[in-house]
């Protein structure tokens, strides 16, 4: 295991401005929202509005398609070849606490990874809570992975990437394929991943009060939300357990790169997953970034550290797929 910290002498003014802006705007809104979880949630609003804000670069190809139970889109940056089973491919799973965000909110991240890793990206619009349990999101994510396999890609040509809740799904895709006797993907890229659903360890972490986006109550509310959604699935008349990747057998997991903010609450989850993978003998690296917010990579148009992070994540994707004999272009 390697534990790295951003070595820059100072945090960019853009990152400082973003952290302050979110702390006094988004953070209180999310905190207020934790008291309204009993009401119908307008889960699609954020993604709809993002269509006009998170616009990918001109020339990006976004091809909508349908998986078994959800939508998805195949994204290619300018100059990237079609998804024909040659080269490499990325499966991307967006964050949003399993209740928000979607293809539009993450269009810029996905397009940037496509360009820098020279790969088409399948971005999955998985089913979300409270209407669907987490198992549905996992199934949709696995269906996305299987779509790439059916397209002709081998596991060693595919990297699974995700942020926040999508980080949880990324690990679950690999674990699901391994449990079914298949080879894992070439690697996993996780940005500020959620890996432990229990909120208590996060509340005890040193960052529980320093997060610029989430209050302590947000972590408790998320746990309550996914538990309630999970109650929709009964096994012998009782809700099935909430599966946490940190509690699973990780010995066959692929090389993993995790990037997280040094001051966010989910650093606990990133550190825990890194330690569990290390103990399992899996090549893993965690890099923490000072002065950044949760999934700061989404601000790559504005924050220089976000661009640097995505560049390093893309380099990792190129490296792990090199083992499949692919040319490192991009």
Automatic annotation (TrEMBL):
<dbReference type="InterPro" id="IPR013094">
    <property type="entry name" value="AB_hydrolase_3"/>
</dbReference>
<dbReference type="Pfam" id="PF07859">
    <property type="entry name" value="Abhydrolase_3"/>
</dbReference>
<dbReference type="GO" id="GO:0004806">
    <property type="term" value="F:triacylglycerol lipase activity"/>
</dbReference>
<dbReference type="InterPro" id="IPR029058">
    <property type="entry name" value="AB_hydrolase_fold"/>
</dbReference>
<dbReference type="InterPro" id="IPR050300">
    <property type="entry name" value="GDXG_lipolytic_enzyme"/>
</dbReference>
<comment type="similarity">
    <text>Belongs to the 'GDXG' lipolytic enzyme family.</text>
</comment>
<keyword id="KW-0378">Hydrolase</keyword>
<feature type="domain" description="Alpha/beta hydrolase fold-3">
    <location>
        <begin position="90"/>
        <end position="297"/>
    </location>
</feature>
<protein>
    <submittedName>
        <fullName>Alpha/beta hydrolase</fullName>
    </submittedName>
</protein>
């Amino acid at each position: 295991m390697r534990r790295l910290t951003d070595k820059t002498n100072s945090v960019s003014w853009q990152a400082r401005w973003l952290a302050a802006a979110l702390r006094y705007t988004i953070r209180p809104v999310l905190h207020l929202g934790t008291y309204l979880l009993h009401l119908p949630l307008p889960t699609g609003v954020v993604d709809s509005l993002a269509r006009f804000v998170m616009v990918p670069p001109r020339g990006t190809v976004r091809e909508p398609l349908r998986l078994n139970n959800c939508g998805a889109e195949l994204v290619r940056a300018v100059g990237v070849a079609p998804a024909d089973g040659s080269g490499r491919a990325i499966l991307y799973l967006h964050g949003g606490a399993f209740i928000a965000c979607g293809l539009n909110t993450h269009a810029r991240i996905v397009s940037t990874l496509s360009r820098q890793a020279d790969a088409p990206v399948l971005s999955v619009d998985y089913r979300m809570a409270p209407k669907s349990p987490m198992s549905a999101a996992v199934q949709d994510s696995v269906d996305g992975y299987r779509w790439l396999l059916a397209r002709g890609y081998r596991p060693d040509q595919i990297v699974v990437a995700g942020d926040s809740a999508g980080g949880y799904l990324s690990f679950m895709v690999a674990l699901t394929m391994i449990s079914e006797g298949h080879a894992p993907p070439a690697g996993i890229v996780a940005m500020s991943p959620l890996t432990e659903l229990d909120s208590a360890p996060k509340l005890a972490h040193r960052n529980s009060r320093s997060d610029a986006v989430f209050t302590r109550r947000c972590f408790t509310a998320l746990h309550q939300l996914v538990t309630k959604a999970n109650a929709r699935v009964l096994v012998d008349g009782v809700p099935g357990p909430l599966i946490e990747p940190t509690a699973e057998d990780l010995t066959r997991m692929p090389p993993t790169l995790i990037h997280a903010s040094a001051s966010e609450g989910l650093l606990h989850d990133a550190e825990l997953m890194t330690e569990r993978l290390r103990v399992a003998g899996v090549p893993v690296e965690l890099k923490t970034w000072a002065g950044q917010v949760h999934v700061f990579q989404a601000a790559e148009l504005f924050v220089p550290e976000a661009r640097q992070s995505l560049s390093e994540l893309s380099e990792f994707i190129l490296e792990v797929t090199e083992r499949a004999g692919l040319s490192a272009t991009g």
